C-alpha cells in the first residue's frame, strides 16, 4: 500500500546483503570522471594545441565542440542500436574507444586526425552517459538507488574541480599530449577494473525495446527533459562566460579561485544529493533550483563584493553538483524499465542545451553585456522551478522513492 504524498515511511537500515557494491560503483565513478575529462580537458590546453598545430585557438576549441557534437548525435541512435547487447560489453566498448581515441590524440601528427579522434570519443561518451545511470541503479537495492547513482556520478564534480586545473598544470609541465596519454592509461586501467568488479546484465529483449515516441509519452518524461534543458542552459551560460562576468565586476583576478570554489562546492552538492535523494528528491530539486535562481538574482543586481561573489559561486556549485544525480534519478524513475533509452534523451537534451548556452550567452555578451546574463538566468530557472512544482504526481513526486515503488 502506498504512503500518502509527503509522508516519509520508516525504512529499515540495509542488511549486509543489501549493501551497495562500492567497488563496482567506484568503477562507474571513474568512468564518469574520464567521460567528463574527455569533454573538458582540451579547454585547458587550447594555447598549446593551437601552437603545436599552427592554428588559432578558436580552431583548437573545436576539439571540445567535436566531442560534444559526437556525444549529442550518438546518444539516442547508438543506445538504441546496442539495447540488446549485454551491458558490460557495451560499457567496455565505450571505454576501449576512450583508450584508442586518447592514444590517437596523444600521438596524432595532424589537426584533422585529432578532430576525428575527438569525435569518436564523443560518440563513445554519449553511449557511456546513456548507460551509467541505469547500470548504477541495477546494481543497488531499490531503497538505495539514488545513493548508488550519486556515487557513480561523483566523477563529474571531481573532474570539474580537479580535472581541468590538473590538465592545465600537467600540460604546462609535460606537454598537452601527455594529458591524453594519461587519459588513455586511466581508460586501460578502468577496462580491467570493470571486467573484474562490475557485474554483467542482459540487454533488453527485442520485443521490449520501446520507440522514442513511446518513452516520451510516459508520464513525467517531457517535464523532466524540459527541466534539464532549462537548468543546463542556465548553468552553461554563466559557466562559459564567467570570465567576462567577473571582469565586469572588477574581479577578473579571482577567476581561478572562483572555479576552484565552484568545483569543490559541486562535490559537496553531489554528496548532499546522494545522502537525501531517496527521501527528498522533489524537495532537493526545488531547493537546488531555487538556490541557483537566488544566486542569479544577486549577480543580476550587481553584487560585486568578493565575499558575496564567493558565497554565490559556492551555492551555484552545490546546485549544479547535485543536478546530474537529481535529474537522472527522476528520469530513470519515470522511465522504469526503459531507463537507458530515457538517459539517451537526457544526453541529447544536455548537449543541445550546452550548445545553445554558448550561442545565447554570446549574443547577450555582445549586445547587452555580461551583466545581462544572470538576469536571463533568473527567468530560465524560475520556469524550471515552476515545472518541478507542477510535476508533483509524475516527474518529481513527493515522498520516499521506496514507498512509491511499493
Question: What are its keywords?
Answer:
406 residues, 17 helices, mainly alpha, single chain, Growth Hormone, Chain: A, disordered N terminus
* Helix/strand/pairing category: mainly alpha
Shape: globular
Give the N-terminus to C-terminus distance in angstroms. 6 Å
Work out the radius of gyration.
21 Å
CATH superfamily of the largest domain: MFS general substrate transporter like domains
- Any idea how many domains? 2
Q: What can be said about the biggest beta sheet?
A: none
Order of helices and strands: HHHHHHHHHHHHHHHHH
Q: Specify the helix fraction band.
A: over 70%
Put simply, the count of helices is 17
Low-confidence stretches: 1-17
On the 0 to 100 scale, the average pLDDT is 83
What would CATH call the class of the largest domain?
Answer: Mainly Alpha
The CATH topology of the largest domain comes to Growth Hormone, Chain: A
What portion of the residues fall into strands of 2 or more residues? Answer: under 5%
Strands, total number: 0
The CATH level-2 architecture of the largest domain is identified as Up-down Bundle
